[in-house]
Amino acid sequence: MSKRSYIDDPLIPHPPKRPRTIPRDHVDQISSLSDELLIHILSFLPIPSLLACQQLSRRFHALAGDAELWKRQYYSRWVRPRARRLANARRTLFSHPEIEYSPRVSTWLDHGHLAKEGMSTNWKRQYRLRHNWSRGVCRVTEIEFPQSPRRQMLVSFCAGIVFTADSDHGLRAWPAEKPEHCLARIPLANSPSPAFPAPTAMAAASGPQQGLVDVTLGFEDGRFNIYTLDTTTLRLGVRFSCVECADGAISTMASCFPFLLLVSEHKVLSLYETKQDMDGAGGLLAPRLLTSLKADSILEPISLSIRATGPKIITSIVYSFYHIGCGWSLGIQELQFGLDGQQISSRLATTADCHYSTVSPGFRSRSKMGFRSASYGTGPGSRQNTTQSGPSISHHEPPTSVSYSHPYLLTSHADNTLTVYLVVSTSTSLSVKGCQRLWGHTSSVSAVQVSDRGKAVSVSSRGDDIRIWELESLVSSLGGQKALRDGNSIRISPENRLGRRHDGLGMVPEASLGEANAARSIDIPHRLARMRGCLGFDDERVLLLREKTAWTQMLECYDFT
């Protein structure tokens, strides 16, 4: 066996030195510049060059990552183009000062949530977040939950926290950022008993104070409990307990403090006020029933929503019904209440007229298949005999899901399409402006969610096709050719599922592996798992629920940070 040669062996040629690209007499003109001047120079560079500059030295890492620098980049990339796009859709003109950059985030369109006092924004992270949403780039993790044999586990998402409820494990809270760790839990009954009713519906919303989240559980015997989670102390406790409040099992719920809207299995709608007042005995006052409505003949899916607008609370019920002329349509009933709980008005609108290409001014179809008051009824409206063309949109099957977040109303269908409507609610009327069909899915769409900012998420029935939609500019130009071009969607493509390489802006590190039921990369055959629906989404993530086996459910978290 031959010995290794010495390093200084003259017979072995030395590796060639890297050629010097900078002359010896070169003078460094950049390092002598001030930080203010360098930041001004960096402001003219594109994003890839900024990221490259951060790798040069510690000084350039700090300068190229300056918050004001990325704040301007964020404004130029996301805020100004959106303002111009909306102006073109609405056929209005913006003056030069209105689109000029302003360091006051409160003046930016729909960015008030980033201008809260005492909150500092990481603008580079915010830019990367919006960039990932626009490309559909994310990381996906999952958690397996054992399912109770009595009832399916209920899941809700609010304020970055995932809430799960079932008869065996009670109500539990999980952080969406690291969903493998349980934050808090509370049993549904003081003593476990098979006779205790199982939960059938759940709704979560922000509580009366900052840092509080109210979780409402409806049960199969008609009762409901309201729990409060303190996100600071991570304490979960019961705030209200109301027995026999609904006629039968509660099927759907919506809440917005201090109001609670619920629908029973017999299609009885009830609206409660749940203020936290103390009675003379030192206990909590029972929730006050404001109104109760009975449905004539409606079919699921049903969507409930509650929103506060100044001195009024507006509750909305969206339901599906069959229209002889245009097939399956939607009805919207809106109830307005004052802050004292007194009912102000009740209005009804349908989407039937929107399905026709031309509508006579005298024709306004009013479906009476809605909710009617138990104390009085509304007489039939007058109709005029007019000639109509055939419907431009006709649905022969009921929608698979409905989501309403004012003013956006979105439905999904088994024919691989979605339909978006714009709901117009004024002080005197309620109407649906128009509708637009959306294409992009290659299989039946089973679930859809839309936010009040116009962002929507849709999921195919198999769960292998998840798409993001931006509806803001689309609904502003309903009926025009531009609407068809703006209806394009973005397919979510998790990096750790497809093995893709990121595009330079970076992603979060790999999710740490934990104990059993911990988050892990998706590697199961998804065709064997049935999609149950979209739980919701916020500015950073999308949550889906999938049924893997008869006794196991999977929570999938798609993180865009």
TrEMBL record:
Q: Which GO terms describe its biological process?
A: SCF-dependent proteasomal ubiquitin-dependent protein catabolic process
Q: Which UniProt keywords apply?
A: WD repeat
**One CC-aspect GO term:** cytoplasm
InterPro entries membership: F-box-like_dom_sf (IPR036047), F-box_dom (IPR001810), WD40/YVTN_repeat-like_dom_sf (IPR015943), WD40_repeat_dom_sf (IPR036322), WD40_rpt (IPR001680)
PROSITE patterns with a match to the protein in the record: FBOX, WD_REPEATS_2, WD_REPEATS_REGION
Q: Does the keyword Magnesium apply?
A: no
- Specify the F-box domain's residue ranges: 27-73
Biased composition annotated in UniProt, kind: Polar residues: 381-392
Q: Tell me the ranges holding the WD repeats.
A: 438-473
> According to the UniProt record, where is the region Disordered?
1-21, 374-401
Biological function: Component of the SCF(sconB) E3 ubiquitin ligase complex involved in the regulation of sulfur metabolite repression, probably by mediating the inactivation or degradation of the metR transcription factor.
Q: Give the family from UniProt.
A: Belongs to the WD repeat MET30/SCONB/SCON-2 family.
Tell me the subunit arrangement: Component of the SCF(sconB) E3 ubiquitin ligase complex.
Instruction: State the protein's name.
Output: Probable E3 ubiquitin ligase complex SCF subunit sconB
